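# step 3/5: fold
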Amino acid sequence: MRRTFQLWLFVSVALAFAALFYLTYYLQTKEAFSAAESLIELRTEDAKKQISINENNLKAVLDICNASMANDVKTVAYILECVPAFATDAHKLEELRQVMGYDEIHVVNKHGLIENCAIDPVIGNAEHYIGFNLKLHAQSEPFVHGIGKKDFVLVQPPLPRGMDRRLFQYGGASRLDDEGIVQLGISVSFLERAMENNSLATLSPGLRIGVGGEILILRGEKIVGAARVDLEGRTLTSIGIDQKLIDDIRQGEGSFSAEIDGVKFFGLYVQSGDLTLVGVMPNYEVTSKRNGVAIQLIIAGLVLMLVVFLSVSKLVQTIVIDGIDRINVSLGRITAGHLDEKVEEDNSEEFRKLSGGINTTVEALKGAIAAEKTRLNSELEFARAVQISALPQIHDDPRFEIYASMEAAKEVGGDFYDFFIVDESHLAFLIADVSGKGIPAAMFMMNAKAQLKSNILNNPRKPLDEVIYDVNNSICEGNDACMFVTVFVGVLDLRSGLLTYVNAGHNAPVVRRANGEASWLPVENGFVIGGMDSVSYVQETFQLSPDDGILLYTDGVTEAMNPQLALYGDDRLITLMDGPIMHSAPSDCILDELKGDVLAFADGAPQSDDITMLFLRYLG
């Protein structure tokens, strides 16, 4: 009873302390941030006033410059009307430029081409500007729109130009002597000084808030003014502000908390024309007074909480956690597949019931798994039987011999072969390899096999490449699984031995001549079927002589691996087909010899892909 009372006493004291600490901390935090918000608002209003003064000063300077240039360019247009020689004589135009005090004067014809100009030699060579088309440059193109307009006058704002990015201003007006315009250009260095004196970068260093705070001046997302030089020119994203807060800052006014270069700040943002002012103070400065009180409370609280924690943790460890850990070990073995594991935790009635429930559930799960495995095996066997029954049987025909075999890597496979009589003088045969394995590949295989056969039989006179083109388009339609199949299709003329074939991304077949020599069948390696619609294929021909044979196979042969992960490969295949064993082997033994060589190479390594082969011998 005593121990129970002490435990609840400790818990009560800890809860009371935590509530008092939280309340004190909350009130002091609220007061600190309220004071910081007032200070930031005051400094932000001062900044808005200073920015407004600077903008008005700069606008006044720009208005004076624009009005002066507008008058000057109309004066030049009037002079050209009075003294036409200025429009054509470069020397006179240079004298006029010097008198007017401008860096450039351009005389532009009705086609927008500079036909005469005077340029300060420091800036460039006037001859290089003759014939320049104003339409070809973004800064000069707006003046072209004034050609043909009697009262056209345009003065552009100063813009950076050239490698040194100095401010340069252009103005233009309609010519009075002819259709076209006249342009003036001048380097406004005095305006650069005025803009520098009134720039945001020179203003912001004086707008600090407290010791570590400041006002950031934004144009869009870019920082154009800040007390810290390293922040100028950067974006809000680059200093760690997330996109949601950036969107809020663009829209209006509000407060926020965020990290800037890894330091937590509290801030306010307000709009000022096209600018946004963001006043920030580091959290450590905002909460410096609060933190002293909090540290004292934390020290006292830690001592008390340590005592409570040790007491409670010892109690919980003994009564609950040890038992749960032992149960979790057993559950870990069960989830890892050891379903014979038994949970035997009986240090309390609750644990005994829990252990019994887990053991009962595992037994039920074992039964369900066994039943599902039996059902799945039955379905796979049925699917395999259906797949094998769909393959063609050996043909008895005096004009040819044909043999084929297929061994799936799983219960059902994605490889297939087919051969059938198209008409009384033509035999079609094919082999294919569907991407993937198992039931999805088998279903895709059945569809592809059916479409290939029906299209060839229904269009016996249609070129083979067009037949494959149609099959590809049909299979691509609705192919949401994005599966594809490599196919080699051949049609043999049983009268002449002429083989017509199309290869859609499949392995090149091997031709075995009547004398036993073997070589690769020349093939154009076309695109796979099902990969992309509207693909063209190439129809090829090859002449077979009596007793010549052709071997078709899938990559399960050439990519068979041994325990050292080496591949069977094309070289070993062609060497075998050209070797003495195959020279003397009858047609019905070719595939057995090849399969035996693949198995000997694999040396007991598991089959990783379907192995399908077809051998056709033309008898004439």
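# step 4/5: annotate
The mean pLDDT is 84.
# step 5/5: archive (pending)
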